[in-house]
Amino acid sequence: MNTLCRNFVTKTKWTCIAKIQCLPVRIPACSAINQHGTLLYVQFRYNFRVYPTPGQQIELARAFGCARVVFNDALRLRQQAREQGLPYISDVNLSKQVITQAKRTEARAWLGEVSAVVLQQALADLNTAYRNFFASVTGKRKGRKVAPPRFRSRKDNRQAIRFTKNSRFKVLDNGRLRLPKIGDLAVRWSRPLPSDPSSVAIIRDASGRYFASFVVQTTDEPLPKTDSQVGIDLGLTHFAVMSDGTKIAAPKFLRRAARKLKRLQQDLSRKQKGSANRKKAVKKVARAHARVADTRRDWQHKLSTAIIRDNQAVYVEDLCVVGLGRTRLAKSVHDAGWASFTGMLEYKAARYGRIFGRVDRWFPSTRMCSQCGRINGKMALNVRSWDCPCGATHDRDLNAAINVLAAGQADKSNDRGAHVRPGLVPAARGEAVTHPDAACSTRSVEGISVL
């Protein structure tokens, strides 16, 4: 068993993975120097569970509602201005109309019951949504098209507000989080913050859980250099096949929870709409789905950390997950979570001084012989091994992983595609929240059961 397998299997202690975002910000004066001699700070988001009292839950609900109303009022004003052919309302004028002047009216006087920073941050979210939309329309923003902002609803599964330093939130010595006009929230700390947070977001998910998401600034933490490099072929039968022969079995978290989810969905369908029992059933379904997502995220964090720790360079194939999600394998593709896993590899490589590269999705890694370079014809998915005319016999996934490694090394040496140090590393897909019972039952390597 190689180093990756040994470290991955023997790591049995559960820890709350709080790293979910890595956004490099280049600052002239700082103490961090990366592998290219560039000074670099990074921002991370640390996520912790909070337990508000019933009274604090009411205050948080009021803050969620006020932020939602300000967001919707501002969006409505800009839509009306566009329909009437009026100029685009600037951010300053919009803030005056929907916050300052609205508080003086009888219909919106209750906006003064919450922190003004919460309302300002709601407008900041709207402005960010508009900027992303305009950048997508003009072609400045790459990737999928971004839709214009939509109205927020009190029935949305996720409610969130944000406090900045201007609100003077504070982490007290007793471990509680003090928020203006809400009080001191009990926080379940899994690790200390590396620096003073610049902002904190309070999030309520569909299952009724509350989280505090801190944004902190820290420096790179480069790991000791190693000579090991690996190419990874992602799949469904095996979640990941390494070029060194390691095979990680697919946990299939959603499939394993399908029976329980089916029962809960059936119970929900029998409840009368609008009843209290239906609300309870909805929350049970949401908790079951949250447990699946948390377990998958925890497992991917541990696997990605082990891969980055043991390899100096990591190369993966740039899969079109959106396209694969439209096929008959959609449920299995979304259950695998390839996009979130590769995102974790990318930002962790940037943080720890490793090399990460994506190989072009049209590269024939499966059909190419890793020994002679011959490209054979298309193969069906049920063909797991094949023989090359040169006499070599290949395992389909292992051969693809070897070719991905070779292509990634070629791109790096020729400077054609692989990004040694990306300028902007995308954040991971969601908040990094784990369940204390999730990690101990989800480690899987070839020959070792998942549960």
TrEMBL record:
Domain Probable transposase IS891/IS1136/IS1341: start-end pairs = 215-324
What are the residue boundaries of the Transposase putative helix-turn-helix domain, all occurrences included?
43-85
**Pfam families linked to this entry:** Cas12f1-like_TNB (PF07282), HTH_OrfB_IS605 (PF12323), OrfB_IS605 (PF01385)
Asked if the keyword Flavoprotein belongs to this entry, the reply reads no
Superkingdom of the source? Bacteria
What molecular function terms (GO) are annotated for this protein? endonuclease activity
List each copy of the Cas12f1-like TNB domain by range.
Answer: 338-404
Entry keyword Nuclease: yes
Similarity comment text for this entry:
In the N-terminal section; belongs to the transposase 2 family.
Q: Which PANTHER family match?
A: RNA-GUIDED DNA ENDONUCLEASE INSQ-RELATED, TRANSPOSASE
Q: What is this protein called?
A: RNA-guided endonuclease InsQ/TnpB family protein
